Amino acid sequence: MNILRLLQTVDRRFLYALLLLAVTVPFFLDIRLPVPISPQTQALYNAIENLPPNSFVLLGSDWSAGTRGENRPQTEAVMRHLMKRKLRFAILAFEAQSATLAQDIATRLQSEYGVKEGVNWVNWGYKVDVVNFLKALVQNVPQTASADVHGTPTAQLPVMQGIHTAKDIALLIDITPSSTYQAYIQFVQGPYQIPMGLAPTAVMAPEAFNYLDSRQLIGMIAGLQGAIEYEQLLGVVGKATRASVSSSFAHLLIIFFILLGNAAMILERRQRARLARLEGQP
Amino acid sequence: MTGFSPWLAANMPRLLVWVGALCTLGLYSILYRENRVYRLFEHIFLGLATGYLIAVTWTDVLLPKWWVPMWDKGQWPFIFTLVLGLLYYFIYSKKHSWIARLLIGFFLGVASGQSFQGFVNDTWPQIPTSFKPVIPHAEVRDAAGKALARAVSWPDAVNNLLFMLILLCVMSYFFFSFEQKNVVLRRSAQWGRWLLMFSFGAIFGSTIMARLALLIDRTDFLINDFGTYIGGPLVMFVILLALIALVLYLATRPGAQEPEGGEESP
Questions:
Q1: What does the alpha-carbon distance between residue B17 and residue B36 come to, in Å, rounded to a whole number?
Q2: ipTM computed for the complex
């Protein structure tokens, strides 16, 4: 078979095999690639860094196991920063699995940073009906989020002291693979002018740049790459940093495939055109 | 763990990782071809997610917010929410479907009212920020020294100009109410279409990034988490290589052809 044709019709399973190798081999290599920090990641980092001590942050966690690859490193990075700065935060989930997934991460990290559930952070658990819950929450936080995931009344928790309405929330961050962040913008950030950050999956990120431009969002951690950048800023080597070389290798491979396939297509077209010209000659 | 045998309780973390690894490999078997193992694990995953959603909705929402107040605390009017909810099922009766439509109409009204507020808070702030300064200037302050406008550098001005041009071109593409006979409008609409293609390309590129992140997470789990239970990450890596070799052998053996449309042959 013509090599140019072969390059365009190669069995997809060979490509999958090469991709799997590109992803797995870096786990055994001690390579660290430079990671430039994007302005939106830096902006969210600065926003948390500049919060007054003991500020209260509302952390929307709206992801499930299906997007764990991106949203878990993001959640870990943000929680590390909040715990490192000893800021108070509440986890709020509009996705059934997310309350448990975020709880696991916070419970694992809290001993590392010397913080405690109920004192420094609280999990309000899974809630349904995003819009109506948020509309009630902004007016009366303790009554709307009346108990944590363990059933403890939130009014009894030290972390909730002084938190009555949306005006007591210093920063709002939503970690999501869906459009829940728009509900936060529409019913919390917009009406109460609360600074808001976002950690979407990479596929959601391009749409969110509009909100960054209009300053409805103050910063963004876009997908796994954003989490890698955030870990760099925090100076920790977490899941995201360990995945960074695999991510770079995989992207380089895909770009190489695209270039190779297109080059083969263009060259084959020229070859055909040349042959057609030759056949047309007497 | 009540009711579980002590062995099961002691080995639960190990079992969870084993089940996770088997599910991951079973689901990734789709990369070879559509097969029954993949379908089995796909159905298990969907069933688990749905079952979990139902269970959590009951334990975290309906039980504390509806059942306990109504049953244990004597707040009996909560029963009416159930009655109202059940009215939806009149949609299946030709004679009484109007009852269900009353409820649907009510909730449509509520949702429409909320979407007005949502739309204003969502889109309105984007309109003034679309007007950007295209002439470079220093920071503008009033007599009291309060900053009125930020400084605009040359690169900022070029960036803003590009933004304005792209905005106008893309908006002109969406003028469908009349025929675009004007040459300027037609050209800008053409540019608008190209610029939209660029943004779709960016979204598609981001989608690939997202899918790769999921693949990396699963391979990290197989190599580093599951690997520790079977003799180390290197052992798991060798197993993966063997699986790759097997798949490639099956794919290239004489007579092996990928089924059309990825469907399993009967």
A1: 22
A2: 0.88
